[in-house]
Amino acid sequence: MGTVINFEERAVASLRARCVAAEEANQDLIAFARGHSGAVASIHQAVLAAVEAEGFDHLIHIVTQDWPQILGLDAVALALCAGDKGMRADASGLQFVDPRVIQKSVARFEGVVLRGVKRGHPMFGPACTLIRAEALIRLDSEAPLPNGLLALGQREAQGFETRHGSELLVFLGRVLTRCMGRWLIP
């Protein structure tokens, strides 16, 4: 006669290991969803602040002064060019820049670039040495409206693993472009 092999212990151990793995994956998914939900809420709050701007100067103030706190960032810079004029704004104020510098910066990508860096994009101005993670958002519009770059930076290095954040940032850039158009076109 043959011997009976007991698979029960192995099967139970395998099921327990799979349950632990599923629970870990579930916790990771919950953590991602909570973080994504927080990002969506922050973007919505930033958009509402921009929509409530009372003029172009106020809009620039909101972007460079209020958005860092709303979005939990260390630096926000806005660079715009129209024709032969270029400007850069950040928390320290407004400066005129060569429009070719801005055009060259935005020609290198479409939409959004999320990346870790050793030094932030030059459009951050003096804060560029502190930036370790940045999101560069291309701002496209039709003439006579300006084109440019919205640069969001933080001191803490960040791993970027998802497209969801870039979709939200594209939305933020499009809203900003439309808000600028509201104040720049008579």
UniProtKB/TrEMBL annotation:
Any Pfam family: DUF484
What is the species of this protein?
uncultured Sphingosinicella sp
Classification of source organism: Bacteria, Pseudomonadati, Pseudomonadota, Alphaproteobacteria, Sphingomonadales
The protein's name is DUF484 family protein
Q: InterPro entries annotated for this entry?
A: DUF484 (IPR007435), GAF-like_dom_sf (IPR029016)
The lineage's top-level taxon is: Bacteria
